[in-house]
Design a protein that fits this description.
22% helix; 16% strand; 157 residues; four-stranded antiparallel β-sheet; alpha+beta
Length: 157
C-alpha cells in the first residue's frame, strides 16, 4: 500500500503593498471613494478583498470590486499570451440599497458568487476573459432568477 504524502500548507498568493495600492487607486479613479471592504481571512489559494463602493451621483449603483484574483496568473492559451489577459479582477453592480452585510443568502449571494468566480481559474486550471459565460444551472438565491454570469471587458473610455 502506497503512503500518502503530507499535504503542504502554503500561504495564499497576494499582491504586494504597491500592487494593491495601484489597484485601490484605479478603483477610486473609476468607481468612487473606497469606504469599506471585506477581506477573507481563511484561505490557502488567494487572499480576496471585496471593496464595496456606495452609489454616487455618476454611478447610482452599489459597486463591488475584487482585489486578489489577479495576484495569481491564469493559464491563458498560448495564442493569447500577448493580449495581457492572464490577470483580472471582477466588478459587480447592485441596486443602491442592497444590504451586503446581512446574514441571509438573499443578501450575500453576490459576495459568494464573486468568491466562486475568482477561484474558478484556479480550480479549473484555466482562465476567464472577455465574454466568457458561466452557467451555474440553478438560481443564486430565492430572490433572484439569475443562474449565469458573463465576463465583460472594462474600458477606460
Amino acid at each position: 500500500m502506497a503512503r500518502k504524502k503530507k499535504t503542504e500548507i502554503s500561504e495564499p498568493t497576494v499582491y504586494t503593498y504597491e500592487q494593491l495600492q495601484k489597484i485601490e487607486d484605479h478603483i477610486e479613479k473609476h468607481f468612487g471613494q473606497i469606504e469599506n471592504y471585506l477581506q477573507e481571512s481563511d484561505t490557502d489559494d488567494i487572499k480576496l478583498n471585496i471593496y464595496a463602493l456606495p452609489p454616487t451621483v455618476n454611478n447610482r449603483c452599489l459597486t463591488l470590486v475584487t482585489a486578489g484574483m489577479g495576484a495569481l496568473e491564469m493559464k491563458v492559451p498560448d495564442e493569447l499570451e500577448d493580449n495581457k489577459l492572464s490577470r483580472c479582477e471582477l466588478v459587480m453592480t447592485l441596486p443602491p440599497d442592497w444590504d451586503i452585510h446581512g446574514e441571509e443568502l438573499e443578501n450575500v449571494w453576490p459576495l459568494h458568487l464573486l468568491k466562486l468566480i475568482s477561484r474558478l481559474p484556479i480550480k479549473e486550471k484555466s482562465w476567464l476573459g472577455p465574454y466568457h459565460t458561466i452557467d451555474y444551472g440553478t438560481c443564486f438565491a430565492s430572490n433572484t432568477e439569475f443562474t449565469s454570469i458573463m465576463i465583460m471587458p472594462f474600458s477606460e473610455d
